[in-house]
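Hi everyone,

Forwarding the result from last night's run.
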Amino acid sequence: MSESGRETGDPQIVLGVLTSIERDSAITQRKLAGDLGIALGLANSLLRRCVRKGLIKVSQVPLNRYAYYLTPQGFAEKGRLTAEYLSVSFNFFRRARGDCVVLLRQCSDRGWRRVALYGAGELAEIAVLSAGEAGIEVTCVIDRDAAGRRCAGLPVVADLMAARLATGEAGFDGVILTDTIAPQSRFEELLSSAPQHGVPACCVLAPSLLAVSRMPIGVSPDAEARETAA
């Protein structure tokens, strides 16, 4: 979720605010912002919004600090958002799991045995869980923003070149997009760079739930056909 998306009142962020306050009424705005991965100003704005809605009450404590408490309405809202989040998460997991299994079986039918994932996060973790059912090995996860970390127990590398180096001679047969933040732009980025690293465009795939198009946005089929013919 982008910063601008969070500013609209993302339910998951609001749930994070209410949960953090329930756990620690003395939490500072700076700590809250750090825990939720948002700007300090946005944390302040969210707290003010929750106060206006009657979800939180504020009391001043010594040393010019503030304590935050959930109101009965706040507890009720936290319960509602938790149930909503769990429902959405379950539906996402079920859809993603099914799509990944189907796609990985298609990879197996092609004779693929090893794949790399493009994009760290929940979808990548689900793809790793699903890979065993299709007899596919996931070698690594590619994500420049999370390079050096691990995802589902696998190393996260910055780009395709690093992925090639990490997998050695065995390499990988294809790359599966698992980025859920900006799937279309990341897919186009991947299609553009893959051939430079020995990965044909036909070996770049994406689960159907990401709804990506192999044709860049804004390019008509007629235009693509003319360019190909030329």
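Residues 1-8, 217-230 have pLDDT under 50 and may be disordered.

Cheers,
N.
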